[in-house]
Fold this protein.
Amino acid sequence: MGAVITERGNRGLRERWQTLLADNPGMRIRQAADQLGVSEMDLVRLRPSQELAPLTPDFSGLMQEMTSVGPVMILARNDQVVHEVTATFGDFTVGGSGTMGLAVGDIDVRVFFGQWAHGFHVREQVRSGNRESLQFFDRHGVAIQKIYRVDDTDGDAWNALVERYRAPAFPPVEDCGPRPPLQRANADALDVKALQDDWAALKDVHHFNAMLKRHGVDRLTALEQVGSQWVTRLPASPGDETSPLDVLLENARISGCPLMFFVGNPGIVQIHTGRVDNPRRMGPWMNVLDKGFNLHANTSGMTDWFVVRKPTADGVVTSLEAYNGSGYIVLTVFGERKPGQPELPLWREEIRKLEDSLCV
């Protein structure tokens, strides 16, 4: 990902983008930005004034008012996975001195506003017609979340919300360069016994990240080192129909086991809970194409897969986790579960089948 560019380079970048789109008419904007060596926000800012308006940086206030517009489609992604939910926001609460927010219900998100730097109201012409969205980016120009107007959105409420949060002018954009890579921990310096002891003493899955921080270890290194009592490495079969995700989704479709899909980036975690009805492989992408929920996972870039078990006051909680080649977690799948309840026996059976089928 390239640095945020200055206005001086806009004309040349616009010409390069137009040439790239002419040769690849179906190319997504994130892919185009990668090929052009710029950020996605650089390309968004090239839109003419009638298609683009800046938003004020009161992102927490805007998110608290999203419930007023009715149904929307929200999209969060990272380099490998796209997570889309169409529903209506419930109450959005803000805490952590304004740095964190969450909504639960049909739209289920955890937001980290410290990463949110820029927002835009975007109008664009697509094959299906006119499309409007609110798009949010970090200081490196990487997209955090997009919120799309849909047919059932309250148009008057949407327009009023956009007008309230429209900024009077485009703010200056600092050149922050690309997002820095993940710093992996030195496994040789890790006290594995202490990590194992702390892992075994966990009482809540929400304490997991704090435990990693105490040990100065990234998530992937911890999984690689903690041992088979808590972690099972699954073989990765990038891009084909034997990836762990393909196997899990097809088995869950047959059994009806409800799943929880967590997809995030540094600015947000977006969650969907429900049964899987329509999993479908399309080239390197494994997809869920269900009413109200779409998942698109490029398994060719998902290099490390694990079944992870964490002890809690409600019993062991199990997840399937996928990581990319840069060491970032890109997808987590749980069985449906609420705090205070044990895991579903059906979910544990799905995990057992997954391990039995892949770990031969």
